[in-house]
Design brief:
heterodimer; A: 270 residues; mainly alpha; 9 helices; 80% helix; globular; B: 442 residues; alpha/beta; Beta Polymerase, domain 2; Rossmann fold; 3 domains; six-stranded parallel sheet; four-stranded antiparallel sheet; 18 helices; 10 strands
Chain lengths: 270, 442
């Protein structure tokens, strides 16, 4: 019954993605983009209901295994997208964002949504705080990644003076550079707080703040990449170089999420 | 005597070739005089803009004239004829007239319908008039071209939908900066196109404008007009740090904005993007600047790529305009034919002879028992009358043929004697005959 909401959410996300892609191909159909925004809301609502149902069923916030983690990541990305879309009204974002979410969540659709038991020492309020901060940070990084890809496409068109149809669909370089940076300047502090709360939680659970578990090490690398990026920004790096760094940063996030958590043995392995 | 057009434009030659063949305005009179010294060239005009370099000439004989003009171009610019052969086109006779009308009406422009070309053509005509390298045929052709352009402008919506270079510049700026408010523009040099582009940017929200020009007074004048600030030419590299958009058209023969200059500026402006528009031919901004991050350099050719909106509607308008050009070429050719006195004399003789014959036959047919002698006498008498009447007009026509201003006389003669087409019936006769038919049908 609960899973029904999950599959409903996935299905409606796919509809939204199709809507946004249609809009991108035929931008005169402005209504398609409006409808896609509404269906994204609807899908997010289903997704959220599923999340709550699972929470009540399991008696803890559902972020403790791989299925639940990517489920939460997808929800986080959509949340960031909806906030940004309402604020800036750039439907082209959806054209790139929705397919990304579908791809990222695809493993969840084929994994079993079976509830697993949790080590009782981990049952604490810190679980929710640590994970939701980290997921929101990652979602902001994903947003910045998408905007960076769009930036690079647009920049390439402007540099090569080959202004195809995409040129007119994509927003201006200035807008993409700005919102990509804005997402990072919100995402990085959230990610930092996620790491801090995680280490406080580790201290209460195991008595040590930091134990060089593989996931912790990767997260530190991710954290450092974005720190360097934000620093370089303040000394005048922007545009193409920033976009590439953001893409590199997010590929480390993906590695950490999809490879390190799955393969390495440690406290974060699921 | 015939018209030829020899030239190249944005379709046949890239900007690198066009800039090699361009004639800066100040050198045009000299070039015209030199061209006239080539045998067989009787009249000439040089049109040199960013998008085209064309020589309009009246020559004694097309093929030979074309050779001479090509020789002039290659010798004047010191280029081998082989290079020219690839990019030059030749439009002889009727094609030449058609080409002139299409250029004037902006049908041949990079941005079809853009209004600047007519002004440029008028300027080129003015220079040739002052240098006295035009006469009857060129004067007629150019005046006609200007009136065709005006007809196209009033009778079609070609110019209305025209998205010219300035619009393209605004569209690009929007894709780089999003909002143009709080952005500054720097005008480097004060060409007409640059001014126009600056005006469009101002209309689209740009608030600050800086003008740098070699003659500082001109910079001050323009800056006042735009409520901007004037910059001394030697100071422009320092002031460029403040500019988000740079429009360059100095008319200098070499690069004014160089790569190392821009690199330094970019560092100082902390790599904030800069949009550079080079409307000058030859180019004034080193193309290598485009390789620098966050620099977007567009020259006139590049701007073409941006202009592709509303193509279909304009296609229809362009067809209407082509039709106008077709009609006008016809009337022009009629005039040109009239220039030649000999066919007019022949036409006139034939026409009058035909009238004489008809009337003579009619009269003889009505008379009974006319002897051959009488017949001959009447024939001779009518011939004598015709010859006496035609004597003066034929003398005038022959004189006119030798006179460069004679074209008007010949065309008047053709009109008076109705040599070109059936005369229309005067309006009142037409109306009456219509009335009669409608009465009958009742």
């Amino acid at each position: 019954m609960n899973l029904l909401f999950f599959y409903a959410a996935m299905g409606v996300y796919a509809v939204s993605a199709a809507g946004y892609v249609t809009y991108f191909v035929k931008p005169e159909r402005k209504r398609v983009a409006d409808i896609a925004l509404w269906t994204t809301f609807l899908a997010f609502l289903c997704h959220f209901i599923y999340f709550i149902l699972r929470w009540t069923e399991g008696g803890r916030i559902p972020v403790t295994n791989f299925f639940e983690a990517i489920n939460a990541l997808g929800m986080g990305i959509i949340l960031v997208f909806l906030v940004m879309e309402l604020r800036y009204r750039i439907p082209a974002l959806g054209t790139f964002m929705l397919p990304l979410v579908l791809v990222l969540m695809a493993p969840a659709a084929i994994l079993s949504g079976r509830l697993e038991g949790l080590n009782p020492i981990l049952k604490s309020a810190w679980l929710g705080i640590h994970t939701s901060l980290a997921v929101l940070g990652d979602a902001a990084f994903a947003f910045s990644f998408i905007v960076s890809v769009m930036y690079l496409i647009q920049e390439r068109q402007l540099k090569h003076k080959h202004l195809g149809a995409i040129f007119h669909r994509l927003p201006s370089l200035d807008v993409m550079d700005t919102i990509g940076y804005r997402a990072l300047s919100i995402g990085w502090p959230l990610f930092t707080l996620g790491m801090v709360t995680g280490s406080i939680w580790a201290e209460t659970a195991w008595g040590t703040y930091w134990s060089w578990d593989p996931k912790e090490t990767w997260s530190l690398i991710v954290w450092a990449i974005y720190l360097i990026l934000l620093h370089l920004r303040t000394i005048g790096w922007r545009g193409r170089k920033m976009a590439w760094m953001s893409i590199v940063g997010f590929s480390f996030v993906l590695l950490s999420f999809y490879v390190v958590s799955r393969t390495a043995v440690g406290k974060h392995s699921f | 005597m015939s018209i030829v057009v020899v030239g190249l434009n944005h379709k046949t030659a890239p900007v690198e070739v066009r800039e090699k063949l361009s004639f800066p305005e100040a050198t045009v009179p000299q070039a015209l005089k030199k061209l006239m010294s080539y045998g067989g060239v009787k009249e000439s005009i040089i049109l040199s803009t960013c998008n085209r370099v064309e020589i309009y000439a009246v020559v004694e004989e097309s093929a030979k004239g074309v050779e001479q003009i090509k020789r002039f171009i290659s010798e004047y610019h010191g280029l081998s004829p082989e290079i020219l052969e690839k990019s030059l086109y030749v439009r002889p006779d009727a094609e030449g007239a058609r080409h002139a009308f299409r250029v004037a009406s902006s049908l041949d422009s990079l941005v079809v319908g853009e209004p600047q070309i007519l002004g440029q053509l008028k300027d080129a005509f003015d220079i040739a008039l002052k240098t006295k390298t035009t006469s009857t045929v060129m004067n007629k052709l150019l005046k006609k071209a200007i009136s065709v352009a005006k007809r196209v402008r009033t009778e079609t919506r070609l110019a209305e939908g025209a998205v010219n270079i300035s619009f393209a510049a605004v569209e690009l700026a929007r894709k780089i900066f999003n909002s143009l408010e709080e952005k500054s523009v720097m005008l480097l040099g004060a060409g007409e196109m640059a001014e126009l582009a600056a005006r469009h940017l101002l209309n689209n929200g740009v608030q600050t404008i800086m003008v740098a020009n070699r003659t500082f007074e001109r910079a001050v004048e323009l800056a006042n007009e735009f409520r901007g600030s004037a910059v001394r030419f030697e100071d422009f590299p320092a002031e460029m740090v403040m500019a988000d958009i740079l429009i360059c058209s100095t008319g200098a023969p070499n690069y004014v904005v160089r790569q190392e200059m821009v690199s330094k500026v970019m560092k100082e402006r902390r790599h904030k993007p800069i949009f550079m528009i080079d409307i000058s031919v030859p180019r004034n901004i080193d193309p290598a600047c485009d390789r620098i991050d966050n620099v977007y350099l567009y020259n006139v050719d590049d701007l073409q790529g941006v202009v592709n909106t509303n193509v279909q509607g304009r296609q229809q308008e362009a067809e209407k305009a082509e039709e106008i050009v077709r009609q006008e070429v016809e009337t022009y050719l009629q005039w040109e034919r009239s220039l030649d006195a000999v066919p007019t004399i022949v036409d006139l003789r034939e026409k009058i002879e035909e009238l004489r014959r008809k009337e003579l036959d009619k009269t003889l047919g009505q008379l009974d028992g006319v002897s051959d002698d009488h017949r001959r006498a009447l024939d001779l008498m009518s011939q004598a009358i015709v010859n006496k009447i035609l004597h003066a007009p034929l003398v005038v026509l022959k004189q006119a043929a030798a006179n460069p201003e004679g074209g008007d006389v010949i065309s008047i003669a053709r009109k008076i004697f109705n040599l070109d087409k059936e005369l229309k019936k005067p309006a009142h006769i037409h109306a009456r005959s219509l009335g009669e038919t409608s009465n009958k049908s009742e």
